[in-house]
Amino acid sequence: MSDNKGIKVIYDADVVHLVLDRPKQLNALNDEIRKVIAATLNELIERPDIRLLVLSGEGKSFCSGADLKTTSYPKVEGSWSTRRNRTATWQRVLEQMERIPQVTIASMQGHVVGGGALLATACDFRVISKNAVLRIPELALGIPNVWNGTPLLAREVGLPTARDWVMTTRKVTSDELKQSGWAQRVALDGELQATTQTLIDELLAVPPAALAMTRTMTSALGRSAPGMNMGWADADLQQWALTEDEYKETVRNYARKVGSKADSKPDTKPDTKPD
Fold first, then answer.
1. Could you report the per-residue pLDDT of 60-69, keeping only the tens digit for each?
2. CA 144, 165, 241: angle at the middle one, nearest 5?
3. Does the predicted model carry a pTM greater than 0.85?
């Protein structure tokens, strides 16, 4: 297990678990978490003995998106090229997830928000608890959906549905997530870990070479989908948005709102992952 920097990396035979571990912050993403994920993905490219990657989160929620209080992501400093490169860092993580040979699974409960939702969307399989709620709030902050997120969502659920989720910034329930095809499995409350383990066992029962080759093929098909090769255009849109006054004011209000909700009780009892 790696040293905890807001995320645990656990190797268990054929499976590596990436466990977001900032439950008091609803597992909000920051630069340290990004660095650990990126380093692990780089390692996995050279680890054919590892067959599956499972992404999950401790506590009552999977992920509340970017930590707007601590991350350097929203700051507008340095030259255009420097800022452009920094805002593309998470996009590169999503691209890495698509290129590793391992089959990827996201196991989620509670809030599945923003960047956390996009990390999950980049996975091959998504398992959610009944209390899971997805939201893509970027437009509410005055910035376009980033990390190449809109094309990624459109690839998985179709453009009309992706347009709805991104443009309205509304909450999407577990029933709709399953109906849209975004989630392949829905677990009853308290059964998320067991449902995820069943999927892990099913995948490990498939001959390794055949599974790895099929994963490589389906990933290549996914990368060829319309809009998946926008390159720097996504980062440029984000940099433009970060200079706008409406973003600066809105993000401050949103950070205060999220901070106040982090201490509130969830609407329903979520799954928790034991140590």
1. 999 999 887 7
2. 10
3. no
